[in-house]
Amino acid sequence: KTSSPDSSSGKEPPFSNNYYDPDIARAAAADNDDDLHHHFSPSRERRLLAKIDLRVIPVLSIIYLLAFLDRTNIANASIFGLQSELRLQNTQYNTALTIFFVPYVVFEIPSNVLLKKLKPHLWLSVCMFGFGLVTICQGLVQNYSGLLATRFFLGLTETGMFPGSFYLIGMWYKRSEAQKRYSFFFGSTSLAGAFGGLLASAIGKMDGVQGYLGWRWIFILEGLLTCVVAFIFFFVIPDFPENAKWLTEEERQYVQVRLRKEQGRSAAERPIGFKDVVNVFKDYKIFVGGFMYFGLIVPAYSYAFFAPGIIQTYGYSRIQTQLYSVPPWAASFTFAMVIAYFSDKIKHRFAFTIMPICLAIAGFGILIVVHDNHHLQYGALFMVAMGVYSAMPVIVCWFNMNLGGHHRRAVGTAWQIGFGNIGGIIATYSFLPQDKANFYRPGYSICIAFICLSAASCLVYAASCIMQNRQREKAPRSLLTEFEKTELGDLNPEYRYLL
Q1: Neighbours of 219 (CB within 10 A)
Q2: Is the CB of residue 332 less than 8 Å from the CB of residue 386?
Q3: Does the predicted model carry a pTM greater than 0.90?
Q4: Among 251, 271, 325, 415, which residue is least crowded by beta carbons within 10 Å?
Q5: What would the mean pLDDT of 26-33 be, rounded to a whole number?
């Protein structure tokens, strides 16, 4: 067991898991970092960043596009007769949506621990093949019980995709350059919504082929696509920088150096233990981050699951409904990238969460009070999708990139996504069949309430970051060893939070 004496007292520091030697105490290591950093010219760094972008972001975006597509295509399937053929009554459809979130929420943190242990290319590709296979089975169910079973296992197999991908992206990029990448990745949900509508409108025309209704073919074909891509992606999904075989040794070292310069060392060498998980939750900001995301999950899933049904009430046919569901998703992707560009440009997050949130609130406000102007109502759906799906990636990026080190980031990101997705359970019961006669006012009101909760949580988190940064600026110089700073992550007194 290796211990690191405290430089001020000569006593062993209060870290019970310092059983490894990360080789961070030697001055030579810092000198090597400086030499390597100066060796890379700005143009060479840009080429390396482009190389990383082409390998990391598109692959993870496609993974999550297919995951979100397989998760929400039940809304498109419902338009093509799922509920009538399976004889779903009352809130049984809503319950089928809800059961997805039970394993999805519970297994987020264990999944990120396994991701680090097994390596991303293995864990993510196995999960991907799993939810593709379950989606195919979903197209073969014959009753309500079968639908519940497949939705449960869909949640179980998808649990690692979103937090795992966010965690992985966060280990490749500096905070000042992360938002565009996060928003592009998160934008795959918008592209999945648009792609899902187009795909469903085409697949729906297979109604009656081989004796299957159109909704079954939606599940079968989209699930089959996921399984094929999962097999290919086993060889393509990137691992963490320190294990990336597609980079040269010098490039791998430089990626790690540039992140150490900004965020400190990550302790990637040490596995995550139970005490690491417990220590993360001693920081109150972890809980605030969960509520930031939780508040937006309710309107996000409400839109994803019920927008086709809402659009159909405007008098469109089944095929028209699928096609009219596409433009709001496309607009939300474009708006999210604009928000991300300016957020990265001025290196600020808080204002770029509040502005889209206000847009979403305005959209829901229109939907509550306007019921006789379908063009205006359809326009309000644009405002909802653009606002919600632009604020969410900023919130996750802001919180995730403010967490220092592998251990705090792995646990904190999984917690935020896992806790936040409890909101998905609320969303599935926000728009009930009987509320259609009341223009879905209860559902819209619930969404506004939870968006306001997210806005308030963002305000608390921003205030906490400002307060702790000021306290650290005024505090005397830290006498902690490099080992202790690494273990503390963003709790290191020398660390500064991004606002």
Answers
A1: 26
A2: yes
A3: no
A4: 271
A5: 47
